[in-house]
Amino acid sequence: IEVGAISSPRLVRTLQGLESFVYKRADAITVLSSDLRGNVAAKIGGQDPAKVRVIPNFVDTQRIQPAASDTAYRREVGAGDRTVVMYAGNIGFSQPLDLMLDTARRWTERDDVLFVINGTGSERARLEASARDLDSVVFVDFQPPERLPEVLASGDIHLIALRKGLARSSVPSKLYSILAAGRPVFASIDPGTEVSRILEENQCGVSVPPEDLDAFESALAELVAATRDRTRMGERGRTFVESWASPAAVAMTYQELFDELA
After folding, report:
1. Beta strand 185-188 pairing with 157-161
2. The pairing of beta strand 137-140 with beta strand 205-208
3. What is the rounded distance in angstroms from the CA atom of residue 165 to the CA atom of residue 234?
4. Would you state the pLDDT for residue 111?
5. Cα torsion for 115, 116, 120, 122, to the nearest 10°?
6. 64 phi and psi, to 5 degrees?
7. Coil, helix or strand for 161?
8. CA spacing 20 to 30 A to 242: which of 56, 63, 227, 251?
9. Nearest Cα to 194, choosing from 223, 222, 173, 219?
10. Angle at alpha carbon of residue 39, lines to 56 and 5, rounded to 5°
11. Is-contact 142 91, C-beta < 8 A?
C-alpha cells in the first residue's frame, strides 16, 4: 500500500479486514522489528499488545564470517586498493541509488573510492545509462548464492538505502548479513527506525536522513577516511549479530516463546 502496489480501496479494506481477523485470533504474533510491532499492536486495538514479539530472521553466522577483503570478486571489478562502497540487492523504486551516482560525480577528482552496485531490478537500466560517464561506478549482476560471503567481504562499506517513509515497514535482510561479515553499514534511511537504531545502539555503522545528498556525501566521506573506526564498527556488528540474529539466538527466542505459550 505504501509504495502504491495496491491502490484499490475495496481490496485494501478486504485485506485489512483479513489481517485484523487473523491477528486477533492468534496467541502470538512475531514481527521483524520494533517498528512493525507498533504497527501490528495498533491493529489489534485493545487486545494485549504483549503478544506481538520481535524475532528477527536469522543469518547463517557460520557461513558468513569476517574475512579478508582481498578477493577474486574485488579483482573482477578492478577495485585494486580503492575503498569499495557497495550496494548489493534489488535495484528498484524503493532504493534511491542516485545518491551513489551523484556522490561519484562530486568526487570525480578522487581516485581512492569505487562504487559497486551489485544486483538487478527495474531501475538498473536507467542508473547504468546515467553512470556511463562515471569511471568510479561499476555495475555487477547478482552473484551465485555460494559467492555471498565473498561478495560481502569485498565491500569495505555496505550501503542500505530506502526512500522516505518506507523504513518503518521494511527491515532489509541484508543488514544482518553485512554485520555478520564484520563490515560497517552506511544507511540512508528514516531516522529513529530499526536500522538506524541498531547502528546507533551497537555503534556498527552510520545513518543519515533519506534522500539527502549533502548529508550522504559528507557522512560517507568521513566513513571512508575512518579506516580504524570501520574495523571497530565491523567487530561490534559481528558481536551484535551473534547475540541477536544467529540461528542459535533466534531458535532460543522461539523456544522461549513456545514454552511460554505451552
Report:
1. parallel
2. unpaired
3. 27
4. 96
5. 0
6. -105, 110
7. strand
8. 227
9. 173
10. 90
11. no
* Per-residue pLDDT at 131: 97
Grid coordinates in use for 250? 533466534
Beta strands in the chain (DSSP E): 29-31, 52-54, 83-88, 113-118, 137-140, 157-161, 185-188, 205-208
Assign 82 to helix, strand or coil: coil
**Cα distances (angstroms) measured from residue 85 to each of 36, 100, 138:** 29, 9, 10
Question: How much is the pTM?
Answer: 0.92
How high is the mean pLDDT of the chain?
A: 95
Cα–Cα distances (Å) from 11 to 3, 6, 25, 73, 141, in that order, read: 15, 8, 22, 45, 36
User: What pLDDT score was predicted for residue 149?
Assistant: 97
Task: Decide: residue 200, CB within 10 A, 0-12 exposed, 13-18 middle, 19+ buried.
Answer: middle
Element (H, E) at 24: helix 9-25
CA distance 33 to 46: 21
What the block records as the C-alpha cell of 197 is 537504531
Closest to 162 in 3D by CA, of 149, 150, 148, 174: 174
Mean pLDDT of 59-67: 97
- Beta strands 113-118 and 29-31: pairing type? unpaired
CB atoms within 10 A of CB 154: 30
